[in-house]
Amino acid sequence: MCLRRSFWGTRGLAFASIALGGSAEQKQRWLPDMLDMNKIGAFGLTEPEGGSQVSQGMRTTCRRDGDGWVISGQKKWIGNSTFSDFTVIWARDEETNEVRGFVVEAGTPGYSVEKIQGKIALRMVENGLITLDHCRVSDEYRLQAVEGWDTVSEVLRLTRAGVAWQGVGCAMGAYELALAYAQERRQFGKRIGEFQLIQNHLVHMLADVTAMLGMVMRLSHLSDEGRLDDAHAALAKVHTAARCREVVARAREIFGGNGILLEFGVAKHFADTEAIYSYEGTNEINTLVVGRAITGLSAFV
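Structure (tokenized):
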């Protein structure tokens, strides 16, 4: 589930970047092929030294050079980048300090990708470290309608809502595994689902999943109505990521020692939850987004 969501989510980030930041000609050039799966895109925003702070401390830069642009810097944790046909790279203009977006095709001189190894979560997802070493692209690859960070923010708002749904899916999967296990596993002559403490775990898990599902359904309704804002998406991400952590922890507990074995499945959910908790804005950063919205006061430093 997390693999599929990460693939489609990353592809959606690239698609949305072009749809929101591209000219009519650029949309026609890239979007139909993406819809038909003839081209795979990636989204390059996060950097090795900056995830949450990238909006204020973006180190990847671009500078005008004749009829083109030279991009320098690195992007990290970029899903799909090891096999994508192109990546939307966000960089800070050295002259104006404005954020600009570029479509950089695989194989462009100065552009290289290294697969990130050693992950405990989302192990099947292809995340890459992108290095841009004076990578030159023509101006036709610059997203012509980008309005600085506002365009990035609009793209992230949509994907943050998607990750909130991912938290629900991961929690649901863990609950279903734990329920089935409790109905079959026998200890002390009984199925463990007959013990009160196990039923207590399952009831709290179901309550959390139900509440999470209600929240993300409302989130999708707001999106359909064109009323989704940053605080809505951030609140849903905060809530579902935290509740997902609790649900999966209870599921692993129900499995006892078997919960750490890959063959029983719940360990994968347990590990993947940690990725969900951290990406598309850590829960701390999303909390500050919501806090600013409800108080009118910013706690960002």
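The radius of gyration is 21 Å. Strands lie at 41-44, 61-65, 68-79, 86-93, 99-105, 111-115, 127-138, 186-187, 190-191.
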